[in-house]
Amino acid sequence: MSGATGVPGVVETVEAHGETTLVVDPARVVEACTHLRDVEGYNVLVDLSGVDYLGWGSKEVAGYIGTPAGRDLNAAGSQGFGRVPEAKPKRFAVVYHLLRVSDEPGRMRVEAWLAEGEEIDSVVSVWPVADWNEREAYDLYGIVFRGHPNLVRILMPEDWEGHPLRKDYPLGGEPVRFSGEM
User: Could you tell me which CATH number the domain at 8-118 has?
Assistant: First the structure.
């Protein structure tokens, strides 16, 4: 990517699996995203998602990496606990998938790491389409986006307790109710 070293707030650039990921200081995410939009031409926010890495890198957590050719079911890490993934810097990540639609198309991932209870600034002012994506990350993971114009639940009822995609969310569920039940 041209100019990646000039993106403000970047703490690390990772090249893996055919794409570039810029790891950004959460306090400077709006500044970095504005630069990527205005200077680098990444004018489309394709997706914004939250990720919970609670327990990642601990014993008894295995993973695999998919490739365009699929995955080797016999490779270490595909079954059992043959490979322990690297620990992550903090529990949560907010991942922005960007697209440059121009004569020189490109894709970019921006990642910001957050600890439990840490907040991040909203990028709705940079890409208005982030509105619902940020609300979804808030609703399902409890990630708070400072400055969001309407940070309320989008999928779960307003009185719902907890955030269902967190790894520590209690398993179980609501009792099944049938229409003919008395």
Answer: 3.30.460.80
Q: Is the pLDDT confidence value at 90 over 90?
A: yes
Structural Rg of the chain based on CA atoms: 19
Alpha-carbon dihedral of residues 86, 90, 96, 100, nearest 10 degrees? -60
Kindly report, residue by residue over 106-165, the tens digit of the pLDDT.
999 999 999 999 999 999 999 999 999 999 999 999 999 999 999 999 999 999 999 999
Give the tokens for residue 75: 């490779």
Question: Please, are residues 75 and 118 in contact by the beta-carbon 8 Å criterion?
Answer: no
4-29 burial code (b ≥16 CB/10 A, e <16): eeebbbbeeeeeeeeeebbbbebebb
Query: In the 8-state DSSP scheme, what is residue 27?
Result: G
pTM of the predicted structure, to 2 decimals:
0.81
Residue 165: CB atoms within 10 Å: 17
Residue whose token pair is 């919970």:
52
Q: Give the residue among 126, 124, 125 at the shortest CA–CA distance from 137.
A: 124
Identify the helix (H) or strand (E) that includes residue 130: helix 130-141
Provide the pairing of β-strand 145-146 with 120-121.
Answer: parallel
Q: How crowded is residue 141: how many other Cβ atoms within 10 Å of its Cβ? A: 23
Distance CA 144, CA 141 (A): 9
